[in-house]
Amino acid sequence: MTDIERANQIAVERMMAARPILRRVARAADVIPALRGRMLLHAGPPITWERVSGPLRGAMIGACLYEGWAAHAPAAEELLQSGGVPWEPCHHHGAVGPMAGVTSPSMQVYVVENVTHGNFAYATLNEGYGKVLRYGAYSEEVLAKLRWMNEVMGPILAAALELSGEGIDIRALLAESLHMGDEGHNRNKAGSIVYTARLAPWIVRVAGDKETAAAVLKFLADNALSVLNPVMAACKAMADAAHGVEGSTLMTAMARNGTDLGIRVSGLGDRWFTGPAGVPDGLYFPGFTVADANRDIGDSTITETAGIGAFAMAAAPAIVTFVSGTPQDAINATLEMYEITVAEHTAFSIPALGFRGTPTGVDIRKVVELGITPRINTGIAHREAGVGQVGAGLVRPPLAVFEDALVAYAEQYLN
Q1: Count of domains in the chain?
Q2: Is-above-0.85 flag for pTM?
Q3: I need a surface site. Which of 9, 110, 320, 400 has the fewest CB within 10 A?
Q4: Domain CATH for 24
């Protein structure tokens, strides 16, 4: 075994050994130090205002309106453009966010603890499909939903998790849901049902009245993505456990901001390697076409980074009804990912492949050598701010980001 292979084995074993537990729900400003002032977090690698995509721009405007920092959209945009509200990537603060990923101080976040290694990760509450903040919408209807989620549902979830005493083992939940037809990224129907069922007894006990309890349970049960955000935080906690291993060529982050896609590599510190995010190829809601689509966006590719999502599509053949393709395409997607990874997950397995572990731990050397980039399945945001989701599909990162990372690795370790 070479030094690189040994380093990659250490990194991937740390990733697979990580045991992420959903401990609590808390106000973002209370658990993420950077958000104790006027600041926003966003998905993907760093970006400047002039390059911000439509959906990210819309989500940041909406967050400013939600926080009361501006009275209307033009004022919010002026505030952002002038530097009155700074922003940084979620990944810089142990957080992840789907699509635009915008997180503001007053929002409630899931707090996930990796009890194996002691690190934490955070993610906001999931709004559901369609016209929502994470897709760049910011109408009063969107803001009203956010207020209810964060002011009513969030505290109830927090109290329910506290009363449970143990929290929820997200790794175990994911392992179960993969055997029930999920893949952990865009198909989370089973996982969301299991998640809601586990919280239900505690929600009923802590809600002030039965109508509120019913409203919270209905919201969680009706949203097939309810569990996505704690799953993303769990995957972030797992991937971060693998980061910082000297000499490792393992990818530990992959994220998009609607303009750029960026990756991080375990042995290369916190440097981002970036290239243009692609436009997904997929299915569109009635009235929309590829001409309406923004470039790929979101931190949700942390799921693929940790060995699920598109890497586990063979477990979820029905995903193709949402992102396009055939059940055989789903199986082929998973089989291809074994070629660029270094392990088969010890906790996540796929019944259709004889309970083979999911392909885990992308090795940038294999990506460049074989010319095979990671698979991604994703939602599609409208390219203009304020519209929302227009479809879902499949996309891949540009090969150049892996080539750039490998050159940087060679310069650091092999010269």
Answers
A1: 2
A2: yes
A3: 400
A4: 3.90.1710.10
